[in-house]
Write a structure and sequence with these properties.
heterotrimer; A mainly alpha (370); B alpha+beta (209); C mainly alpha (324); A: 370 residues; mainly alpha; Cytochrome-c3 Hydrogenase, chain B; three-stranded antiparallel β-sheet; 15 helices; 6 strands; globular; C: 324 residues; 2 domains; 12 helices; 68% helix; 0% strand
Chain lengths: 370, 209, 324
């Protein structure tokens, strides 16, 4: 047997915590053979702020601002999840108008999250202009949300029992005008990005996640729906005012990056539909439940409430032992599960593909580290 | 063979379509604002730091130093002190310090105040050279705002005034207690026979939340 | 004094004046192009770009150049010092030398050589060497990756570039750039060779490392590619070389396809510069519209699409020339 004296050596490259494309402080430890990756290992924890520890030392009202900071891109959904969990615990029902307002604001926030993902993802791929167009659209939504909630990014708006302040007429006309405007921009995004041959070559048949892997790793959100599994909490375990609206769940078929991209674009269109229907059907009435005490002392018990955020299933699990502070709040965040698929699908890809795959899974690192 | 050329043709066409979008935006007017030469109006509910509302009737603040805001703040940054001055029905806030560098603008203090004494300001240009520049003394801020609006300035009670008010309060309380005790003794003496006929009164309890 | 008078008005004098002119042109061109790039990119992104320094930010590049000149030249410890120091110089020299043969107008050529076009193509290959030197000597994995990508990319795209240029040379019959321009006095070659023009623009964009082929300096993947470790004036030199390379590529394109300095009314040099800057605007337009191609797709594109098409174009041109 002739043995070649050449050893196959791999070298270690660190896609360090400070990197333009890792969407936060994520470190990916790569073992590379030339330009191909043989092993990828994400290292998390650089953004740990101790939210769950803070939850044990604050009462239920005082924990509200924290929820806006866990995932700042779809903060209203996290607010909604936590408020709904506590409302379940203390047995309060939100009046109908309050639920409709919550849905409208959360869907607008979902639009901002998906628009930002779209722009930032293309920036990772090297196209420098779509992000500017998206941020222009996003500014309109942020101005609208600022009118109602007073904040642009880290919202702390919902309260237990409903919403504290009502919508006004200018907001409603503004939202309708915005829906029209965004619908007129879809052809531009299509021509600039979706049909572009360079983009299609970068995203088709790259980063394929099979249905089996989805279920094994517990993926949720557009990452799951891109592989063909039609699971959306708004349809399978409806909450809030979602049963009243008519919308579809877009799913992909192959599970590659292009499918996840199309799923998110179509989700944006479905959000527009939901907002339109909610504005048409908006009922009159109170926006806040009556008799919600200012110092909550819920009964002993546990509650779990899941909501569908832009990234997947956010679950809020509260254990109460009857005091004014919760015994434990566990936040189940979608990006943690979604990131866990990375080591498996990043093998035998190029660094450029790794960046594309990481972007398409749409992780927000602060919510992984909490 | 044909698919090869077709692919090249569709690819080229998609690139040209993309370029058409960019050149259209090239000639559109810009959507940015040259801050600080041009400014945008803040929305009416914009959350700047919390400040006292200047009551339209009394032209001063409404804080009664109940300390609900201080207890509610998630970041423990409000320090409130109050005193009851002689001749007034309620306590009045004498010190209100708000450490803005940790404030998360959650709005809990604004919402929980029983007299709605707080509102969000519209100030977003917060610049300072040290952390202490972000500590807001609300009574001083109120004076500045009253001066700017041409209203009479609310004087900040000094330490001696507070001590004197506390002493006067204590005296009044003593006098009241004595008077109440004397009245109760007189009532007891005046109606010993009615006691057996009357049902015993349930003692009043203070319900603390 | 007689010796001086003898030398001036001869080749040496001509070349000295040309050298001064070239250095002036290169610096002014780089400053101008940086400002134009920022303004073009800004308006394509519906924003304004530099507005503060000078009217509409016209002096912004000067301010940036002064800032870069004032920066500390950091040399990391483990670099290969001679190569690290030489790389910026080597990247800049071929670009300067290519200016020798460019016909700015009928009389404004420094030296009209017989092998004009081959000189330019030869020197442009030297730039690859400089990138390899920069990447390797930096002792940084990101830089090495950037340099490797750049070498493969440049070598792969040289071939269709050469073949495309050959189709034009076949029509003209000479390598002299002034001959090529003179042969277009009737009609511009872009009208008869549109495919060659497309191929040339693609290869020129790839040769100058501009998007969508800017993998060597892919910002979102490799931090800054081969010039990660360069700071201050050294980085400015790489930048300058890139913009001057763009000018050379656009100038070659103008000479080969757009009729050089031909044009009515205005003097030749004005038409030449207008056409060159139009091609540069086209390259900038590409950069701000398309995402980056992946490395293996880049090589596939060159070998499987560009080279066959370039050969086909050459064969058709030869056939047509033979049948004439």
């Amino acid at each position: 047997m002739i043995e070649l004296g050449i050893e196959e050596k791999t070298y270690t490259l660190n896609l360090g915590p400070q990197h333009p494309s890792t969407h936060g402080v994520l470190r990916v430890l790569l073992e590379m053979d030339g330009e191909y990756i043989t092993k990828a290992e994400p290292v998390i924890g650089y953004g740990h702020r101790g939210h769950e520890h803070m939850a044990e030392n604050r009462n239920y009202h005082q924990f509200l601002p924290n929820m806006g900071r866990v995932d700042y891109l779809h903060a209203l959904a996290y607010n909604q999840g936590y408020c709904m969990a506590v409302e379940k615990l203390i047995g309060v029902t939100v009046p109908e108008r309050g639920e409709y307002i919550r849905v409208i604001l959360s869907e607008l926030n979902r639009l901002t999250s998906h628009l930002l993902w779209f722009g930032a993802y293309l920036l990772d791929l090297g196209a420098f202009t779509p992000i500017m167009y998206c941020f222009d659209d996003r500014e309109h939504i942020l101005d609208l949300l600022d009118r109602i909630t007073g904040s642009r990014l880290t919202y702390c708006f919902y309260r237990f029992g409903g919403v504290p302040q009502d919508l006004d007429d200018e907001f409603i006309t503004g939202v309708r005008a915005f829906i029209k405007r965004l619908r007129s921009r879809w052809p531009d995004y299509d021509n600039l990005v979706t049909k572009n041959v360079i983009f299609i070559n970068r995203t088709k048949d790259v980063g394929v996640i099979s249905k089996d892997q989805c279920v094994k790793y517990g993926l949720t959100g557009p990452t799951l729906r891109g592989s063909g599994i039609p699971y959306d909490i708004r349809k399978s375990e409806p909450y809030s005012a979602y049963p009243a609206f008519d919308f579809t769940i877009p799913i992909g078929d192959q599970g590659d990056i292009f499918d996840r991209y199309i799923v998110r674009l179509q989700e944006m269109e479905q959000s527009l539909r939901i907002i339109e229907q909610a504005l048409d059907k908006l009922p009159n009435g109170p926006i806040m439940a009556e008799k919600v005490p200012k110092r909550l002392k819920p009964a002993e018990g546990e509650v779990y409430q899941a909501v569908e955020t832009a990234r997947g299933e956010f679950g809020c699990y509260i254990v109460s032992q009857g005091g004014i502070k919760p015994y434990r709040i566990k936040l189940r965040v979608p990006s943690f599960g979604n990131l866990s698929i990375l080591p498996e699908i990043a093998v035998d890809t190029l660094v450029a593909d790794l960046v594309a795959i990481l972007g398409s899974v749409d992780v927000v690192i602060p919510e992984i580290d909490r | 063979m044909m698919t090869y050329f077709k692919e090249i043709a569709t690819g080229l066409w998609s690139l040209l379509a993309g370029m058409a979008v960019t050149i259209r935006y090239f000639v559109k007017p810009v959507v940015t604002v040259q801050y600080p030469r041009q400014k945008i109006e803040m929305s009416p509910r914009y959350r700047g730091y919390p400040q006292f509302i200047i009551d339209p009737d009394t032209k001063t603040h409404r804080c009664i130093a109940c300390e609900m805001c201080s207890r509610m703040c998630p970041s423990q940054l409000i320090a409130v002190e109050g005193a009851k001055f002689p001749g007034e029905k309620q306590k009045r806030g004498t010190k209100y310090i708000h450490e803005h560098y940790y404030c998360s603008l959650c709005g809990l203090c604004v919402e929980v105040c029983p007299t709605t004494a707080l509102e969000f300001s519209k100030e977003y240009r917060l610049v300072g050279l040290s952390r202490q520049d972000a500590v807001i003394d609300h009574l001083i801020l109120l004076q500045e705002r009253q001066k700017a609006a041409g209203l009479p300035v609310t004087p900040i009670p000094t330490a001696e005034e507070i001590v004197a008010a506390a002493a006067a309060e204590a005296k009044e309380k003593e006098a009241k207690a004595k008077a109440a005790a004397a009245a109760a003794a007189a009532a007891k003496k005046a109606a010993p026979a009615e006691e057996t006929a009357k049902a015993p009164e349930a003692p009043a309890k203070e319900v603390k939340e | 004094m007689e010796l001086l008078a003898q030398y001036l008005g001869t080749e040496v004098g001509r070349m000295l004046i040309g050298l001064v002119g070239v250095i002036a042109l290169v610096s002014v061109n780089a400053l101008f192009l940086i400002w134009v790039e920022r303004k073009v990119s800004a308006h394509m992104q519906v924003r304004l770009g530099p507005m503060e320094v000078g009217p509409h930010g016209a002096i912004q590049s000067v301010a940036d150049a002064l800032k870069l000149m004032g920066k500390e030249l950091i040399t990391p410890e483990e670099v290969d010092k001679p190569i690290f120091w030489l790389a910026p110089i080597v990247v800049f020299l071929p670009v300067l030398l290519s200016f020798l043969v460019i016909p700015f107008s009928q009389s404004l050529i420094i030296k009209d050589m017989n092998v004009g076009i081959i000189l330019i193509l030869g020197f442009s290959t030297l730039a690859v060497l400089a990138i390899l030197m920069a990447g390797w000597s930096s002792n940084n994995k990101y830089s090495v990756l950037g340099a490797i990508r750049s070498v493969a990319q440049n070598v792969a795209y040289e071939i269709p570039l050469l073949i495309t240029v050959m189709s034009i040379i076949l029509m003209v019959g000479s390598f002299k750039l002034s001959d090529i321009v003179a042969a277009q006095s009737g009609y511009w070659y872009i009208l008869v060779q549109p495919l060659a023009f497309l191929l040339f623009i693609t290869c020129a964009t790839a040769e100058t490392n501009r998007a969508p082929f800017d993998l060597p300096e892919a910002e979102s993947e490799l931090v800054a590619g081969f010039h990660t470790e360069y700071s201050g004036m050294r980085f400015a030199v790489f930048f300058l070389a890139e913009y001057t390379n763009m000018f050379i590529a656009a100038a070659v394109g103008t000479v080969l396809f757009l009729g050089g300095w031909h044009g009515p009314i205005l003097p030749g040099v004005v038409w030449f510069l207008l056409k060159v800057y139009a091609l540069i605007f086209l390259m900038m337009w590409f950069r701000w519209t398309f995402p980056r191609v992946r490395f293996d797709q880049l090589i596939t594109f060159a070998w499987k699409i560009l080279i066959p098409l370039a050969f086909a174009n050459l064969l058709i041109t030869a056939l047509v020339m033979k049948l004439r």
